[in-house]
Write a structure and sequence with these properties.
The protein is mainly α. About 90% of the residues lie in helices and about 0% in strands. α1 runs antiparallel to α2.
Length: about 90
């Protein structure tokens, strides 16, 4: 309604248009702030999952090595496990 307000209400119309624009900008800022918070929380979750995944890989490797040392697994079986895990 911008130009009509200005024509009909003059300075008051201009001020109303400015107030509407400020309100729109405020809403955009709130949405961007929420998006940034959401992105940061997702980034943190991804980081935690990557760290947990790395720890699990280390545990699996340690278990496989222990099973091989105790003679439970042959080198060929370890090789097969490694191939399965890499897929």
């Amino acid at each position: 309604m911008g130009w009509a307000r200005t024509l009909l209400l003059g300075d008051i119309g201009n001020r109303l248009d400015i107030a509407d624009t400020e309100q729109d900008i405020g809403e955009i800022r709130r949405k961007l702030a929420y998006k940034n918070i959401l992105d940061e929380s997702q980034d943190d979750a991804i980081r935690r999952l990557q760290e947990e995944n790395q720890q699990l890989e280390i545990c699996v490797a340690a278990l496989v090595n222990a099973l091989q040392r105790k003679g439970v697994l042959t080198p060929e079986e370890v090789s097969n496990l490694v191939c399965l895990i890499d897929q």
